């Protein structure tokens, strides 16, 4: 007897989109129930940091300096911020969401062609997170595509390729600029993160998330509490909220400003900064009103880089901080996270060096 509550599906799992479209669905199947899912009541915070991207490129030094300070503080206190005036056209963001919606709306047999078998397959769609390992499934279908340093893309819908190419390049450019500013906020050279983590071949993943309307949203979970691997994740959505971040021990709803990018710090920024900047724990909740679509672009070091704390941030005197994390190859870290159950910061926790 398999331990998984979903053992009735052997090789493949029905998408939650299909489940949600069953006629007269008034309650969710029992293997989608997360009894402790919505225990804490979330807050609506107006205090989520907002970074004006144009100030990071401004040549007015006061404005630039303040933006660097604000960014450093956002990384330290929140691990999360919204970026405005980022220069990515609103129309492109809309197209990304629309074509992702089209992908999930293709007939199930068509999507099956992109199912992938292994967590390192460059194009992989499926349901939940790791359905074969989970006791209860998440109310989410996904598409994950490796888009840099090598670009991959599902062959359908046809329009996907050009839109994905353009958006992923724009989001890499925003990320590089933010990471340069974050380097400076750590009192390092602007190129410090770029050079140490070999961002010429930064690993970038496009993740489309599809959370159908759910008849019992309080019992279901879109994505469990987790932190992202990598450095920065940029998220856009179809104007239906659902992202929550953990801040000072409480869940906070993210109500996106119009045309903003939602950015969270990842585990490798925590490691590189030797714990000064923490990767933020976040989750996705679902709702009974509308289907939510989000697209995350995750940006990490080059896969072959072994990432440890920056040497400049690890003190050499006895009174200063030693390395607080063991180094690990990014590819191994990523594989480990993707092939297990998604569980808070469990992979990062294994690298923590206690006593420092
Ligand atoms: C993710 C993620 C949250 C969301 O894809 O890693 O955290 O709001 N998504 O869809
Ligand atoms: Ni995430």
Structure, briefly:
This protein has 356 residues and is α+β, with helices and mostly antiparallel strands. It has 10 helices and 15 strands. The protein has one domain (49-307, 319-351): Jelly Rolls, CATH 2.60.120.
Give the secondary structure arrangement, pairings included.
Layout: H1 16-20, E1 43-44, E2 50-52, H2 53-56, H3 61-77, E3 80-84, H4 90-104, H5 108-112, E4 123-127, E5 141-148, H6 160-185, H7 192-196, E6 203-211, E7 223-226, E8 232-237, E9 243-247, E10 250-253, E11 261-265, H8 267-272, E12 282-284, E13 292-300, E14 306-307, E15 328-329, H9 330-338, H10 346-351
Parallel strand pairs: 1-10, 2-3
Antiparallel strand pairs: 3-11, 4-5, 5-6, 6-13, 7-12, 8-11, 8-13, 9-10, 9-12, 14-15
Helix pairs in contact: 3-6, 4-6
N-oxalylglycine (OGA) binds at residues 207, 209, 223, 228, 235, 242-243, 282, 284, 294, 296.
Please mark out the parts with pLDDT under 50 across 5 or more consecutive residues, or reply none.
1-11
Q: Give the helix proportion (percent range).
A: 25-40%
The portion of residues forming beta strands comes to 15-25%
Structural class by sheet pairing and helices:
alpha+beta
Cofactors and ligands: N-oxalylglycine, nickel (II) ion
> In this structure, how is the largest beta sheet organized?
8 strands, mixed
Number of helical regions = 10
Q: Work out the number of β strands.
A: 15
According to CATH, the fold-level topology is Jelly Rolls
The average pLDDT score comes to 92
């Amino acid at each position: 007897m398999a331990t998984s509550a979903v053992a009735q599906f052997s090789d493949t799992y029905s998408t939650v989109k299909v489940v949600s479209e069953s006629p007269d669905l008034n309650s969710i199947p029992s293997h989608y129930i997360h009894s402790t899912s919505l225990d804490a009541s979330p807050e609506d915070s107006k205090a989520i940091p907002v970074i004006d991207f144009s100030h990071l490129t401004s040549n007015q030094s006061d404005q630039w300096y303040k933006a660097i300070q604000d960014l450093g503080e956002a990384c330290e206190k929140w691990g999360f911020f919204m970026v405005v005036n980022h220069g990515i056209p609103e129309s492109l963001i809309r197209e990304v969401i629309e074509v992702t919606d089209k992908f999930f709306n293709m007939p199930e047999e068509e999507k099956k062609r992109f199912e992938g078998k292994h967590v390192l397959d460059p194009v992989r769609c499926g349901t939940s997170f790791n359905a074969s390992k989970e006791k209860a499934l998440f109310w989410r279908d996904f598409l994950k595509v490796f888009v840099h340093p090598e670009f991959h893309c599902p062959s359908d819908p046809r329009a996907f390729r050009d839109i994905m190419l353009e958006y992923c390049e724009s989001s890499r450019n925003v990320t590089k600029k933010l990471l340069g500013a974050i380097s400076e906020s750590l009192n390092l050279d602007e190129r410090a993160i770029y050079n140490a983590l070999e961002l010429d071949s930064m690993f970038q993943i496009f993740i489309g998330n599809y959370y159908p309307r759910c008849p019992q949203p309080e019992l279901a979970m879109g994505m469990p509490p987790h932190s992202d691997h990598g450095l920065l994740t940029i998220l856009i959505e179809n104007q239906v909220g659902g992202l929550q971040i953990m801040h000072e021990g409480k869940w906070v709803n993210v109500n996106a400003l119009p045309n903003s990018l939602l950015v969270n710090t990842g585990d490798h920024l925590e490691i590189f900064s030797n714990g000064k900047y923490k990767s933020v724990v976040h989750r996705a909740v679902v709702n009974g009103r509308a289907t939510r679509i989000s697209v995350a672009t995750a940006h990490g070091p080059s896969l072959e880089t072994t990432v440890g704390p920056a040497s400049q941030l690890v003190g050499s005197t006895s009174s200063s901080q030693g390395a607080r994390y063991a180094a690990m190859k990014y590819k191994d870290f990523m594989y480990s996270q993707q092939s297990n159950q998604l569980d808070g910061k469990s992979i990062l926790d294994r690298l923590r060096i206690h006593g420092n």
